[in-house]
């Protein structure tokens, strides 16, 4: 899932803790062109304040207007946008697609708070679960999930939907460099939660990217303390072995789906030898590390290198082999 969806649930939980009723909207299915994928979230308070998105704006505008008009006062509503409009109102998607949306009215009760806390922990990668929502009663609970299959499953026989809660994609940037800033910006645009670790005060002073969590500590320490899950990518971008090598030694002990370190073919070969000799890494450990990092785009500038890094991360995330590109 995207970092935006994590922010939605964090905000919903905050509103609910403050006694606010919240309408949580989830994309159940899309047909044809659609701005956001199944599982995407929008949350709205009774006063119209909202976070997240379902489309390019037209769906949100219609939903907010109808909510202000007193609609959606039941626990569950399922809407369809597109295909000539919704419920005869004539609201259609400009892209010509179709969007099914689940609307849950969440009252600020103890049961709601517990459900949202479990949901937040799941998106943070603490446990693989799926939400199961009864479309008739609004009852909801969690079930164990293996992470395989479509994002949303519609059980028509039991009139229920099951929504997979994959951890939010996370990028850990080990060390600050000119490439790090561009990497952080590109990753944010791709929906990643971005965490930058560097113990050097002089580098921290010059790193300014809004929305990025910056931790003044060795990346290896953060990684070893459990900062990764299966939807995490770890990249080392400093050319400083004291930061990059230690980060790689800890990274290969995690379930991160992508591990990479910047450097030329020559320096990468030397690093591999150091990691075997001093870090005790096996050949299998070394094979997990992308070095040189990124796709071979002939990149020269920091922005071009960062683009090649994020392109390679996206390739691995989507399960594409290099020869398929």
Automatic annotation (TrEMBL):
<feature type="domain" description="XdhC- CoxI">
    <location>
        <begin position="15"/>
        <end position="69"/>
    </location>
</feature>
<protein>
    <submittedName>
        <fullName>XdhC family protein</fullName>
    </submittedName>
</protein>
<dbReference type="InterPro" id="IPR003777">
    <property type="entry name" value="XdhC_CoxI"/>
</dbReference>
<dbReference type="InterPro" id="IPR027051">
    <property type="entry name" value="XdhC_Rossmann_dom"/>
</dbReference>
<dbReference type="Pfam" id="PF02625">
    <property type="entry name" value="XdhC_CoxI"/>
</dbReference>
<dbReference type="InterPro" id="IPR036291">
    <property type="entry name" value="NAD(P)-bd_dom_sf"/>
</dbReference>
<feature type="domain" description="XdhC Rossmann">
    <location>
        <begin position="171"/>
        <end position="313"/>
    </location>
</feature>
<dbReference type="Pfam" id="PF13478">
    <property type="entry name" value="XdhC_C"/>
</dbReference>
<dbReference type="InterPro" id="IPR052698">
    <property type="entry name" value="MoCofactor_Util/Proc"/>
</dbReference>
């Amino acid at each position: 899932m995207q970092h935006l969806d994590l922010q939605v649930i964090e905000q919903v939980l905050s509103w609910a803790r403050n006694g606010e009723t919240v309408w949580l909207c989830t994309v159940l299915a899309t047909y044809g062109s659609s701005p956001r994928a199944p599982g995407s979230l929008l949350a709205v308070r009774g006063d119209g304040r909202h976070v997240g998105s379902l489309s390019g704006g037209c769906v949100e505008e219609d939903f907010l207007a109808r909510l202000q008009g007193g609609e959606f006062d039941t626990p569950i509503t399922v809407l369809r946008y597109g295909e000539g409009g919704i419920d005869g109102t004539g609201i259609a998607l400009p892209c010509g697609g179709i969007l099914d949306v689940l609307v849950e009215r969440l009252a600020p009760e103890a049961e709601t708070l517990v459900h949202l806390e479990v949901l937040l922990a799941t998106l943070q990668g603490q446990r693989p679960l799926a939400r199961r929502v009864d479309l008739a009663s609004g009852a909801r609970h969690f079930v164990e999930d293996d992470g395989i299959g479509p994002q949303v499953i519609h059980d028509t026989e039991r009139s229920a939907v099951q929504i997979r809660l994959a951890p939010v994609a996370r990028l850990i940037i080990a060390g600050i460099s000119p490439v790090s800033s561009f990497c952080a910006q590109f990753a944010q645009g791709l929906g990643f939660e971005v965490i930058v670790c560097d113990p050097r005060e002089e580098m921290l002073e010059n790193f300014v990217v809004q929305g990025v969590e910056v931790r003044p500590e060795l990346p290896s320490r953060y990684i070893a303390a459990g900062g990764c899950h299966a939807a995490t990518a770890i990249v080392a971008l400093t050319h400083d072995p004291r930061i990059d090598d230690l980060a790689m030694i800890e990274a290969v002990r995690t379930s991160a789906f992508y591990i990479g370190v910047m450097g030329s073919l020559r320096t990468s070969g030397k690093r591999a030898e150091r990691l075997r000799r001093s870090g005790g890494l096996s050949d299998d450990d070394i094979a997990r590390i992308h070095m040189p990092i990124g796709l071979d785009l002939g990149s020269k500038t920091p922005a071009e290198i960062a683009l090649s890094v994020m392109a390679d991360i996206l390739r691995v995330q989507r399960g594409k082999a290099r020869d398929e590109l």
